[in-house]
């Protein structure tokens, strides 16, 4: 366009055609598109040419596509006649919706007279709502279209069906009504419409929806890549991985997207080996592998602990060097961080993390999780501090990480920090924090969190409910735990297992096995954890025959092969009951060599019943397997001390010193007035310690009158009797109980927690304390709960 067009000698048709051709060619030069468009528009205005509708519509369309919506709108509003032009209105509706301005698009739609509306115009508005996932609005426009008797085509139904799929919950009747409309319109043979119908039925939870989706699929005269993908993904979402695979095997053509969907489905359902095999087939057949393929197969390797295979896939990626841009590579790099972290190679994971060019919050969370799971708490804290942004998952992972690394108190502090920074905790964050309260025995704090859960509407959350149940049980309130269990709207296998474990730990063995039997009657299949909990419950209550029956039913009735942990529970059950010979026979019949947990159970049983020969042999096996574990030395010392073999005790003590093994110091703690007070053996640091010792001295007089005699065989030192009694009187659990009796309101239960197993003398002493002061005293040690009341213990002295 080199010359100047004179307005005096204007031949309208050629000029119009000339401008139309120029505008058509503009779209081929995107880099200079908008600048050239404005130049052409300026030339039209300067020439005096009065463009007709098709030129103005083209200008509006091009301005809309260029993103210059103000110019498009000015042209549209220039004359009232423009408002009656559906072509221009359609261009503006499409442009406004693409830019996220749905209100402006709807304004154009509403101001366009009914007489000017056509099929394409309605389709534009329906598609706008569909892209915005506003299903109800799209369906409402579709109904208006029907009422206005505007013809519907395949684009109409593709748009409205896609939008309707976003309406949740989606009723089967709604799907069928739209399906009928498709059939009446004659568009059912359109591939895009059929695909949208299948996707609609796939989103519907009704069981019959899958049948209707399959009918649509089977009747399609032709299918494309999206068809196969939609059907496979639909079956995967419903958990029917077998039918998904059958459809996949019928597939015509090698669509990489469908292969990716199938691999992802296997990963989602925990079929990691199958996912890996499909990846291998995909590679052998030469089907293109992309970032979605690699992300899924690496996830399979990470979640299925197929670490060597994962490293082989990583090596393959390095070798083929796919041309990923930073955004495309990011999901693959993130799952590589997870893979190496789970394999224990957290340093390799950190190198991959450092090389990620555009890290997102998923990258940071993956590295954070890796450090926490590896026990590198200080590195995790550094990562958490350096994160440019945090989401709810970040806080939840960090709170749980503190808990699992023995830093429950830090988890509580972080939860409070989370709220102070304005981040609303989700139910999982509450679950982690409630679990921390359980570890600390912070019952009142846990109750406060329970109240907050109810206020926020999280009481129906299974994760929060299970955490509450466990927290109450660990804080000694098994009644509150049971009430929580009964009030949960949806109990799962975790809930049942937690309640069975709670009953067992509190000495309610009969109730625990009754609940286990009820779980099975209610149609919940027991898993490995279920059997561990019921075997422990039998062990704590001396239910030997019942425990044997449950153990034998594992493989016979439920197809679960007992692991070493199950055998350890069974041997512990027999050992506590004094049936050492039977325990030895079980060990000899095991399908694998006994590990540390087995020999620990044997040694514990020998300590209780004084079997020196087998106890020493079990200790020797443990010294070979876990020479740095202090528990072996302590149990062996107790075994020697019980029969007065002080030379043996000294020998064990020297062995510990020579090997650099340090005994974990015993400590007990109690919550008073929302504060946790910790006591050590022979404590001199607590501010009230002198008052505590005086109280114990006075209380001791009452206890002796009731028949209490200190059991000095639990002192592992060959010293005078009076000195032994003094050593016993300074045990941490006695100090914590005395503090509770002094500081808690009259009549309130005293709840004490201890990190190690309660000693025999303290167990006897606290029974007499409960009688002397007429109070219930609850002690949680490293193994179980003891409820002391009226001079009796819930364990029945079977512990």
Automatic annotation (TrEMBL):
PPR repeats lie at residues 118-152, 224-254, 255-289, 360-390, 391-425, 492-526, 527-562. This is DYW domain-containing protein. NCBIfam families: PPR. Gene3D superfamilies: Tetratricopeptide repeat domain (1.25.40.10). It comes from the Eukaryota. It comes from Musa balbisiana (Banana). GO terms for molecular function: RNA binding; zinc ion binding. Keywords: Repeat. InterPro entries: DYW_dom, E_motif, PPR_At4g14850-like_plant, PPR_rpt, TPR-like_helical_dom_sf. Residues 707-799 form the DYW domain. One of its GO terms (biological process) is RNA modification.
